[in-house]
Sequence to fold (263 residues):
Amino acid sequence: MSEAPIAVFDSGVGGLSVLAEIQQRLPQESLLYFGDCGYIPYGEKTPEFIRQRCGLMARYFREQGAKALVLACNTATVAAVAELRRDFPDWPIVGMEPAVKPAAAATRSGVVGVLATTGTLQSAKFAALLDRFATDVKVVTQPCPGLVEMIEDGDLSSPALCRMLQGYLEPLLQAGCDTIILGCTHYPFLKPVLEQMLAPDISLIDTGAAVARQLRRLLDEKQLLASGPAREPRFWTSGDVAHFAQVLPLLLPQTGAVQSFDL
Fold:
């Protein structure tokens, strides 16, 4: 059972940023990835629809023998992680949440910015994080419509993307943010261009590394850590296979075969 694979799920290619962190910190683990690209963006879908998709995906990968599940999508975590943990109580399930706690600890100016999808920013889970960890700092939130779709197209640095990003960053910078949370798993792929656009004293924080550490803890508790060697990662998408295969090497050094699959 310890050599069984780990399933990683996202609404699109954003969860590949989390997959990369898992590969780096748990190189002995074999990984399965499903990008539900045929239904992106999740931010525009109802919570009921997202829960249904997540439930179907979880049952499929459970049947495939996956020993753990990583819900590498903030929107899906908000909508579905509680229900999945209830339905699969013996299965290690790791979700995402914006890195409010480490950002609040890191800020020097006392002002933290959040780049995220509208769905994440409007969620009760995000509000609870602010109530719990951000009582002593000012948090400036910025929804980023259109950004996920550009990253899904493999656009990480075009002039149009930079103009969009600049418009989203401007309110945060004017408010005095010195720490910016990347509150969507797609956004870490923009770190190189963000670092070019921002002053060097502005910190960028995402949760991919924390997710990999939590996954390691849960697997260790259940004595499920693999000894390796890891098998080549496998990829599925409900969207266009050729497009996914074209974008994949832009986002991930170690790629693999992509299969078409809809739940």
Observations:
- DSSP finds eleven helices and ten strands in the chain.
- The mean pLDDT is 94.
- Strands lie at 6-10, 31-35, 68-71, 93-94, 111-116, 138-143, 179-182, 203-205, 234-237, 258-260.
- The chain has two domains: 6-96+208-260, 100-205.
